[in-house]
Model the fold of this input.
Amino acid sequence: MTGARRWRLGWWLPILAVALYVTVPVISSIAYAFFPGGELSFEVLSRLTQDPDLGPAITRTLLITALTIVTLIAVLVPAVVAVHLWAPRLRSVLEVLCTLPLVVPPIAVAAGTVALLRWGAQQGRGSLPSRISQFLQHPELPLILVGTYVVLCLPFTFRSVDAGLRTIALKELVEGSASLGSSTVGTIWRVVIPCIRGPVLFSVFFATAVCFGEFAIAATLNRETVPVWLFTVSSTDFRASIALAVLLNLTTWALLLIASFAASRYEVLHRRTPDDPALSASTPAPVSAQEGSTPR
Amino acid sequence: MTIAPSSPPDLQDPAATGGATSSRASVRAALRSPAMITSAPLLLVITLFFLVPIVGMAIVAFTVEGPDGTDGFGLDHFTGLSSRSRAIVNSLLVSFVGSTIAAVVGALAAFCIAQLRHRWLDSVVAVFSSVLANDGGAPLAFAFIVTLGNTGFVFEALGLGAIGFSLYSWQGLVVMYQYFLIPTMIMVTLPTFVGLRREWSEANTALGGGRLTYWLRVGLPIARPALLSGWVLLFGAAFATYASAAVLIGSGAFPLIPLTIASELRSGASSAGEGAAMALGLTMVFVAIIVLLVFNRLQRRAARWIR
Done:
């Protein structure tokens, strides 16, 4: 690497340029929101807390987030463990299904959902589809958002849990545990789940970040979550909306940071050591995760 | 694919690797297996909240009211899209320009990061690129309004108004999209650049090749699938972006496909508007699936050399 030393500064330049580009908007928004007229002031925050609609929006968002996390973990983890253990063929089906939401734009999902809910509502007052439609888009707790947010989380969380299970000798663990007299459920609870703590934690934080930030579907369905409220308030109190945007952005970043630390803390997923064949073979990079599994 | 002997085929069920002859039987067995029962809730959620809406959207998009008032199959909503060609052209233009710039800048940055092989930098980049790649929501647009809007800090400091820059146009969208596109590109291409083995460069030197020959004959050909797949992915991401564009542009001034869908949906239950929205939505799904297929194919080729 002696020849490259000369180039060092040159290598840093593009990286620093990107870093600058990333930080300037954050600094500008903080300055705009909390330094009006050049002096530090949190007056805008007290304006925010006085808004009668923000509280319910926050409660609603938190409730949706909690339900999304619970549903996501409850449906995803057992499914991925089961297909790894018993049905590798189903695994690739699940993989495709779970990856699709990554490429289908949220606004298209929103459009489809609207079409479906409207169809339900048109089936006549009091009919079952109409009642289901109303129940799902209840303004206080729109359960339709919980369902769609679970789907939006699937691409990344499936990959994380899937990769986590691939790094452990799942079958051997379960067989070994069974030969020692443990039940399958007991083994999964006491052995397998602790092994994928990292991916599960990642899923929790990732889902939180998604729920806090999602705008397209909530706005289309006209349900007031925090991001939607943010957009509404920007027309009347721009500084307050900037302040909330900063807080929301930093919260999301923090959540995603914790998510990626959680994912890398319990496993060697993010260690890039291409020289170690054993390690690099068993820890596929997150993006190309689907290739390692298809040697057939 | 160069997979070391200790790779995970031991996780594969022997029945599944037994060959294609037993494929139908094993599928049928899988449907009755405990695996299927355990995955049923997940499949149900995907079906109800993802597949059914998409199918419903397709049904609305292809349904036209005939002259006698009955509904039938037809392409009217799609042929009617020509009146919204501005949104389609705008979306394609912004996605193409945005993804191309981000692909070049992101690949350059990833290349430099890989050259430095700096432990601390590597972990910071790994974390931040994945965090920023998921950005693109409403708050991002607000950050850019304050930075590059008509009274934004950077806008005024650099006098961007004098050169005719406006955040509320395609230029602004392209600049804003870079915020999540560049990190995505870094995330996708960095493993490839890091995976370029030093042995290859040494072999090139031993055989008398210079730096230029190395990159032209070895480095770039190996990196090309990853670069292309990154670019395709960026195009898809830019094409699908809604939240930040909606906050920045609103509806009207500079129509994009997602913005048009939203405004048609909001304009009430008039069936013409809804049909057009669903047709546009289906077009987006179609583009997205093409992007996924091309991306997967290129990724597979890119993965051949890394590992």
Observations:
- The two ends of chain B are 9 Å apart (CA to CA).
